[in-house]
TrEMBL record:
A Gene Ontology molecular function term of the record: polyubiquitin modification-dependent protein binding
Basic and acidic residues compositional bias, start-end: 313-331
Entry protein name: UFD1 protein
Family: Belongs to the UFD1 family.
Compositionally biased region (Polar residues): 290-304
Region (Disordered): 285-331
Naturally occurring in which organism (per UniProt): Cyberlindnera jadinii (strain ATCC 18201 / CBS 1600 / BCRC 20928 / JCM 3617 / NBRC 0987 / NRRL Y-1542)
Key words, A-Z: Ubl conjugation pathway
PANTHER family: UBIQUITIN FUSION DEGRADATON PROTEIN 1, UBIQUITIN RECOGNITION FACTOR IN ER-ASSOCIATED DEGRADATION PROTEIN 1
Length: 331
């Protein structure tokens, strides 16, 4: 049965390490500094890698787990990150019991950020993956500290799997699934459905900005004043008198061109750049009375289709042809 490493050390925060061996980023990790004689004892006991330790405050009965970063501390001392000092409720110079333990490899961890500022990180999973490289273990109810972009974030460990008596897992060389709980102080936004107000139907013909651009009022007035091209009355084959067609009365006073533009609904992917303005063609002969001598004009057509009659007099033959009664000629 292998023997266990079990020693008592006085604990100090990393900030109190001598400048020659001090590491600034060690405060935001999960590893401790032990003296060189601890390495000799661990080697003699054949403690296998990774070397994981249980840190116990017997006075408060508080514990956590960690790895070791270096064996450079002074004899009888152990240096801890500040968040470990807070977790164990110890002061500089307090006595800690350090024991090596075999912590199971982790498969799952659920964490809870201690501030809503953690939501400002664009990719928290990538940041956490990079930060966990400085940790060897994660223990339930520990509040670790993460330094990202010169901002310190507190993260509490809520749950770990697989479950064990240690309530801790090893995060070295393992595939770890991570779940995030809502940050402390986070309030879920309340979304309310907004009722769309239907526009009230207008009693007048309201024209928008397009009416201004094409001068619709003057076009409507000009259309009402057009001269009729054909005069007379229509006749029915039945002999009944045709009813005259009434003109549509256009009340120009009801046209309002100062209103808002009506919504233009187009299918997806179609753009609208306005209607083309095509001015009407003006007929110069409009308004002239047709002369009685030229009511019907045109050219006649022959069934022979060999010669086109330009005039009725030209088609008359100078001498009448005499035919025998037995011969019939059809023009």
């Amino acid at each position: 049965m292998p023997q266990k490493f079990e020693e008592y050390f006085r604990c100090y925060p990393v900030d109190m390490m001598p400048e020659s061996i001090k590491k600034e980023d060690a405060n935001y990790g999960g590893k401790i500094f032990l003296p060189p004689n601890a390495l000799n004892k661990l080697t003699m006991l054949h403690i296998r890698y990774p070397m994981l330790f249980e840190l116990l405050n017997e006075k408060e009965n508080l514990r956590t787990f960690s790895g070791v970063l270096e064996f450079v501390a002074e004899e009888g001392r152990v240096y801890l990150p500040q968040w470990m000092m807070n977790t164990l409720h110890v002061q500089p110079g307090s006595v800690l019991k350090v024991t090596n333990q075999d912590v199971p490899l982790g498969k799952f961890v659920k964490i809870e950020p201690q501030s809503v500022d953690f939501l400002d990180i664009s990719d928290p999973k990538a940041v956490l993956e990079n930060v966990l490289r400085k940790f060897s273990t994660l223990t339930v109810n520990d509040i670790i500290q993460v330094n990202y972009n010169d901002h310190i974030y507190g993260i509490k460990v809520l749950e770990v799997k697989p479950e064990s008596a240690f309530n801790s897992i090893c995060v070295i060389e393992t595939d770890l699934e991570t779940d995030f709980a809502p940050p402390v102080g986070y309030v879920e936004p309340v979304y309310s459905k907004q009722e769309k107000k239907k526009p009230a139907p207008s009693t007048k013909n309201v024209m928008g900005t397009m009416a201004h651009s094409i001068d619709y009022v003057n076009i409507a007035k000009g259309a009402a004043d057009t001269v009729e091209s054909f005069h007379g009355q229509g006749q029915k084959l039945s002999g009944k008198v045709a009813k005259p067609v009434k003109k549509a009365d256009v009340d120009l006073e009801k046209l309002i061109v100062s209103g808002e533009a009506a919504p233009l609904t187009l299918p997806f992917g179609q753009l609208f750049f306005g209607f083309p303005l095509v001015p009407p063609k003006i007929d110069e002969t409009v308004g002239e009375e047709p002369s009685s001598s030229h009511v019907f004009s045109g050219q006649g057509q022959s069934l022979r289709q060999s010669k086109k009659r330009k005039d009725f007099k030209q088609h008359e033959s100078p001498k009448p042809k005499v035919h025998s009664p037995e011969v019939i000629e059809i023009d």
